[in-house]
Amino acid sequence: MTEAVAENAAENVEAQGTRRPSSAFENEMDEWDNSLERQQVRSRSMLQKQSSLKLSRASTGKLSRASTARLTTSKSWGRASTLGWLGQDDDTTSGILADFVKRERSKAKNPEATSQQYLERVLTRSKALQGKGMKKVMGVLQYEQLYAMMMASVVQECKDRGLFARTPANSFKQQCKTIHQLKRLTLTLSTAVLNWHFTFRLLNSPVRPPLEPKVEKLTRLSEFWSEGLWIRNDLRLLEGARDVSDERPRYDLCFDLQHQGRWGVRKRAGTLTHQQHEKAKLLTAGGRPEDGAGDGRFPPKELEPIATAQLLAPARRGRKLYLDKCREKQVIPSPLLFMTGHTHDLKANGQLFTDAELLAAMTLLRDDFAVHELDLAENGLLTDRSLVPLLEKLSLEAVCAELQRLSLAGCRQMGRSGIFAVIQLTAQAPKLRALNLTNIHFSTHGLLPLCQAIGSHKSLRDVSLAGTGLGNNSLTLRCLASLFKNNFLRKLDLSWNRFNHEEFAEMGRIISGSLEELKVDYCAAYVVGRDSPVAELLEGLGSNTYLKKLSLIANRVDFRTALVIEDVLDMHPALKDIDMTDNPLGALGMRSLLRLLSRAQNALKHFRSDGCYQGITAMMEEGQGCQVYSFTNPGSRYVLDLSRPYHRSLLRILYKTAERYKLTLDKAFELIEADPPYQHASKQKGIWQVPSAGRVVFNFSVEAQIQASLSGVDDDDYLGFLDTHFELTRFKADRKKIPALFAKWLELLGREEDQHVYLAALAKDFNMSLPYLSYLCSSAPGSVRHTMMTMFPTVPSDTQSRYLAMLCFPRLSDFYVCYGAMEALLLFNAQNATGHYKLDLGNSCEFAVAQRLILLDRWEAVVNKRRARCDVSASANRSQLRNETHQGRDLLLRVKSVAEWSLPEYDIFELDYVSSYRPPAKAQALSDELWESLMVTMYNCKDTRPEDKIKALRSISHLIFIKCMHMRQMVGYFQEAEHREEAFVTFFNRVIDMHNAKQFTVRFDSEEELIRLRSRLGYVTFFPFLQPENAKFVLNLKYNDQRMCASILVDLALHEKYGNIREYTLINEEGNADPMTMGVPRSWADFAKAPTTGTFKCRYVCAPEDRQVDYRKKLAQSYGFINSIFSEADVAWWTGLNEVGSDVLDLLEFFISRYNNVNEAFHHIDGGVKEGEGGNTTSNGELTLREFEAGLRDIGCHKFKGANEKERIGAVFRYLDPGGEGNVSLQEWQILGQLWKEFVLSIQEFVQFLFFAFGDELEFAWDELDDDGSGELSEDEWFSAVKRIGYFGPARVVFALLDGSDDGNISWDEFQELEKYRPKKKEQQG
Question: What pLDDT, on a 0 to 100 scale, did the predictor assign at position 797?
Answer without folding.
Answer: 82
